[in-house]
From TrEMBL:
<dbReference type="InterPro" id="IPR033749">
    <property type="entry name" value="Polyprenyl_synt_CS"/>
</dbReference>
<dbReference type="InterPro" id="IPR053378">
    <property type="entry name" value="Prenyl_diphosphate_synthase"/>
</dbReference>
<dbReference type="GO" id="GO:0046872">
    <property type="term" value="F:metal ion binding"/>
</dbReference>
<dbReference type="InterPro" id="IPR008949">
    <property type="entry name" value="Isoprenoid_synthase_dom_sf"/>
</dbReference>
<keyword id="KW-0460">Magnesium</keyword>
<dbReference type="GO" id="GO:0016114">
    <property type="term" value="P:terpenoid biosynthetic process"/>
</dbReference>
<dbReference type="GO" id="GO:0004659">
    <property type="term" value="F:prenyltransferase activity"/>
</dbReference>
<comment type="similarity">
    <text>Belongs to the FPP/GGPP synthase family.</text>
</comment>
<protein>
    <submittedName>
        <fullName>Geranylgeranyl pyrophosphate synthase</fullName>
    </submittedName>
</protein>
<dbReference type="InterPro" id="IPR000092">
    <property type="entry name" value="Polyprenyl_synt"/>
</dbReference>
<keyword id="KW-0808">Transferase</keyword>
<keyword id="KW-0414">Isoprene biosynthesis</keyword>
<dbReference type="GO" id="GO:0005737">
    <property type="term" value="C:cytoplasm"/>
</dbReference>
<dbReference type="Pfam" id="PF00348">
    <property type="entry name" value="polyprenyl_synt"/>
</dbReference>
<keyword id="KW-0479">Metal-binding</keyword>
Length: 317
């Protein structure tokens, strides 16, 4: 595409989103309870404590909300028991994968960051070795959540499909591959296509997978899944463009992480390539592309996904 000229999860609410507030709060309550139940109270040494520290203390929970919204978009506002259970497990899984990626990204061998979600990063709090193991364990726990659906014959095929989707978003085709490109790009100026490719993998892949997994949990047909995949791809890239903007214009207290670190590390960003105004215009074009995909899909209940796309552009952290 060519570029156009903190102790608890915070509900994704802004004055412009009105009715979205109650929906977001209800889904976040269920997600927090499910994560609390899934994470171990006891594990060898400080492993359990490090896992819980990385997951339970804050975060926007956008990925779980995308799962819920996509499931409801294809099934209607009310999910049946089996779809609800699948969506709940997927919502936990994508947040656990996201948390693991943050723990590893913050390590000294990666981005070497000391602040995440307004508190010391996991390796600062627990040491590098425990943080590394906590990330590994969170990744395994994510797949345990999804593959738990395989215990029932009627959802075994769905579990396999969901597990494949999550694996592809997490591995060399997705997050891990994007992080490898990111590390190799320090000090280089990428062109727009290269920058898009990096962030469609590093950030966008899991956001897109969250939408896809929710759609599958809700029983999406091929046409709905294709439309929601387009939505997720555009939204995932828009999220990263806004992240690059906020890294420049917001402070660390607002972001809950170190502001200005991309420029300090000489990393290529959408702002460094397009400028602030250009990056904002690019994000708006991607948001409109995402919302157009919802209309193309003729979904029964796309309103919440539409509101989430609005929030991505309006967010302040």
């Amino acid at each position: 595409m060519s570029a156009p000229a903190p102790a608890q999860a915070t509900p994704l609410v802004s004055p412009a989103l009105g009715v979205f507030a109650a929906w977001s709060t209800a889904r976040l309550t269920e997600v927090e309870a499910a994560l609390e139940a899934a994470l171990p109270q006891q594990a060898p040494a400080e492993l359990g404590a490090a896992m819980r520290y990385a997951v339970l203390d804050g975060g926007k929970r956008l990925r779980p909300l995308l799962v819920w919204a996509a499931a409801e978009a294809v099934a209607g506002a009310s999910l049946g028991p089996a779809s609800h259970e699948a969506a709940r497990r997927c919502a936990c899984a994508v947040e656990l994968i996201h948390a693991y990626s943050l723990v590893h990204d913050d390590l000294p061998c990666m981005d070497n960051d000391v602040l995440r979600r307004g508190k010391p990063t996991a390796h600062v709090r627990f040491g590098e070795a425990t943080a590394l193991l906590a990330g590994d364990a969170l990744q395994a726990l994510a797949f345990e959540q999804v593959l738990g659906l395989a215990q029932a014959t009627e959802t075994a095929a769905l579990a396999a499909r969901l597990g494949l989707c999550l694996a592809q978003a997490s591995g060399h085709q997705g997050m891990a591959g994007g992080q490898a490109i990111d590390l190799a790009a320090v000090g280089r100026q990428l062109n727009l296509a290269e920058l898009e490719d990096m962030h469609r993998r590093k950030t966008g892949a899991l956001l897109r997978a969250s939408v896809q997994m929710g759609a599958l949990a809700g029983g999406a047909d091929a046409a709905a899944l294709a439309a929601l995949t387009r939505y997720g791809a555009a939204l995932g890239l828009a999220f990263q463009v806004i992240d690059d903007v906020l890294d420049v214009v917001a402070d660390s207290a607002t972001l809950g992480k170190t502001a200005g670190k991309d420029a300090a590390a000489d990393k290529p960003t959408f702002v460094s390539l397009l400028g602030l105004d250009g990056a904002r215009a690019y994000a708006l074009a991607l948001q409109q592309q995402a919302q157009a995909a919802l209309h193309e899909g003729a979904l029964p209940a796309p309103q919440t996904l539409h509101a989430l796309a609005d929030w991505v552009l309006q967010r302040s952290n």
